[in-house]
Write a structure and sequence with these properties.
- The protein is mainly beta and 293 residues long.
- It has a single domain, classed as Avidin-like (Lipocalin), CATH 2.40.128.
- The chain has three helices and 16 strands.
- The strands form two sheets. The protein has an eight-stranded antiparallel β-barrel with strand order 1-2-3-4-5-6-7-8. The chain has an eight-stranded antiparallel beta barrel with strand order 9-10-11-12-13-14-15-16.
Length: 293
């Protein structure tokens, strides 16, 4: 049922081919970081991200996978995506919008970065900041080569273990609910957050798992999460930081409606169904038009 809303929203947001209606291609931000975005079915995006900011020596020489979604809206587009660095030891999720300012497409984004850490260092693992990306030509040199690309391949046993550990129902201290239900491709997962679909990317190692994911909350608002799974005995905690961005046609203050928060989720089981009571189709349609207007 949750997917129906996403499909309806996608259907109303088709301005493909117009400025900001097609965000595929190469982009660069004010720090010199490059990304390449490719469109996938159902408004999903994948691509590559090459950071110009080194958190460890040699990081700027590596290219990491990018996963997310976008939605064309009147006067622009919403976008949310995640990049997992160093197998998820750190990860960043971006949320924002594309609008045309002075005749130029610009991606105004806010990002949240989390690093994996055991207590007592968790107070210093989260950073929040902003990036603005400009489109560059396809023939521009983004200074990365396939030999430097971080492979998404993992030993089958580790990949399967990570997917098994994160799958299922999660409920936060504030009552927010997630259901991670399927892995469509290695490392890529889908599910639901209340009434909305989530699209995400996971990675990790024997002792931790990292998740970055995005959800289109409505036709005007996106939410992204960045988090790590911590396990102690039989207890699982998914600790996340999140951002929401509501579309605003304003080149001077496009991030005015951005919000930040933290949610810690407890694992509630591996039921295949939604974490919420299923809504009737009529209720879904009513909720959809309430978001629209």
């Amino acid at each position: 049922m949750c997917l129906i809303i996403f499909v309806l929203i996608v259907g109303l947001g088709s301005t493909y081919g117009s400025k900001c209606g097609d965000i595929s291609g190469k982009w660069v931000n004010e720090l010199g970081s490059h990304m390449t975005i490719e469109h996938r079915p159902l408004n999903r995006i994948t691509g590559e991200y090459k950071t110009a900011v080194e958190t460890f020596k040699g990081a700027a020489a590596l290219v990491s996978n990018l996963t997310g979604t976008y939605l064309s809206v009147s006067d622009g587009a919403l976008i949310g995506f995640s990049v997992l660095f160093n197998r998820g030891a750190s990860l960043t999720s971006w949320v924002g919008q594309c609008i045309v300012c002075d005749g130029e497409e610009k991606l105004f984004t806010t990002w949240v970065l989390r690093r994996h850490a055991e207590t007592p260092k968790k107070w210093m693992i989260t950073n929040v900041h902003q990036n603005t990306f400009l489109r560059i030509g396809n023939d521009a040199d983004s200074s990365h080569h396939s030999s430097n690309r971080i492979s998404s391949r993992r030993p089958e046993s580790i990949r399967a273990d990570i997917e098994d550990r994160i799958k299922g129902q999660w409920i936060s201290d504030s009552g927010d609910k997630l259901n991670i239900s399927a892995h469509s491709e290695p490392g890529l997962f889908t599910g639901t957050n209340c009434h909305s679909e989530i699209i995400g990317h996971s990675d990790g190692s024997d002792n931790f798992a990292a998740l970055g994911f995005v959800s289109p909350l409505s036709s005007k608002k996106f939410k992204v999460w960045a988090g790590h799974l911590y396990e102690s005995g039989t207890e699982k905690k998914l600790e996340t930081s999140w951002l929401t961005h509501e579309f605003r046609k304003d080149c001077q203050n496009p991030r005015h409606l951005v919000q930040f928060g933290v949610d810690h989720y407890s694992h509630a089981g591996k039921n295949e169904g939604s974490v919420l009571k299923e809504e009737s189709f009529l209720e879904i349609i009513k909720n959809f038009f309430r978001w629209m207007f």
